[in-house]
Structure formats: C-alpha cells, structure tokens
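Appendix B, record 7
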Amino acid sequence: MGSNLVIKAEKTEITVFKQAHKSLTPISFTVDEKSYRSSRKPNSDGMAYLGFRFDGRNVYLRNSTVANVAGKMFRTCQAVALNHVDRYLNKDLHWLIENAPIDDVSERFFQVKDFEEAISKARTVGSDPYRKMTFFSYAKRAADEFRPNGKQIETQTIKLKKQLEGMLIRQIVARFQTRDVRLELKLAERKAEKQA
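Structure tokens (predicted):
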C-alpha cells in the first residue's frame, strides 16, 4: 500500500506556526511541481486536514465542511417544507409554522433520539452502527477527540443547529406563498393528461 501512495504537489501544503505575542501565526508554503520552488503565503485558516483545520490554538470544522452541511440542511428543509405544506392543504400559515416538523429535520443532522440505543440495536442485528451517526454525532466525537482544542467544533455545531429552525420556517412560508400556483399547475397537468 505504501508504495502506491502518490502525494500530489498541488494538493500539498506545508504550514509553519510562528510564535507572535501570545498566539501562533500560520504561514503556509506550497511547492511548484515543475520548478520545485516554494512560495510563501499568509494563511489565516492554519493547517487543514480532511474535514478539520487547526489555527495554532483550536481545531475547527473546515469552512467547506460547514458549508456542505448547511447546503444539505437547506435542501432538506425545502423538501420537508414542500411536503408539510402540501400535506395540510386546509391549514393556514400560522398552523403550519406552529406544527413545523423541526424534530424530524433536526434528527437527520443532529441528535438522534436514543442514539446509544439505536447504535446498540444496529450492532445486535448485525447492521452498520455508523449508519446511525449524524453530523452532530460526528462533530461531537471529533470535539471530544480534539479536547481541549476542539471546543470550537461544538460552537460551530450550535450555530448550525440554531440556523436549522429558521431555515425550515422560511421554507414553509415560501412554499405556502406558492402553494396555490403549484396546485393550479398540477390540476392543469392532470387535465391535459386526461385530454391526451
């Protein structure tokens, strides 16, 4: 396996942390594959590896990791809101918001109810327990592994969790506002299919 490992210069970066006052300042170097010259660039993100970054003091989820999760949360909220609004056609906007399925959406990304029980049950029946992991359980485990430097991961997760309910409510409002138009289009499509 080791002999098959290929390190690509364009994906490789050397980060040096320089002591400045009471903090560490990251400086990154990249190597040009053709000339083998290194170029220095200031780096505010620090060292990045897999889904994490280290700024010399704390470990964070990479910005792209957080953005990807936020995008998945947004798309999930769109789909759940559409389903919620179309399922309760005779309900007004106030009722739809009051009865928003936030727990269902939240459980997809954050804390699964009875997580330890779900993991134990998965192991008992021989299925993969990691399928029960959510973004939250992944982030929590990472924060614990990087402790005491991983507390910022928990802060990032809390911010995402706070955004989720607002995302879902905004999508419910948007879907409610376009519901009549969507229903008219569906009726027109059905009418056209019957005539064809």
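Remarks on this record: Residues 61-181 form one domain. The first strand starts at residue 14 and ends at 20.
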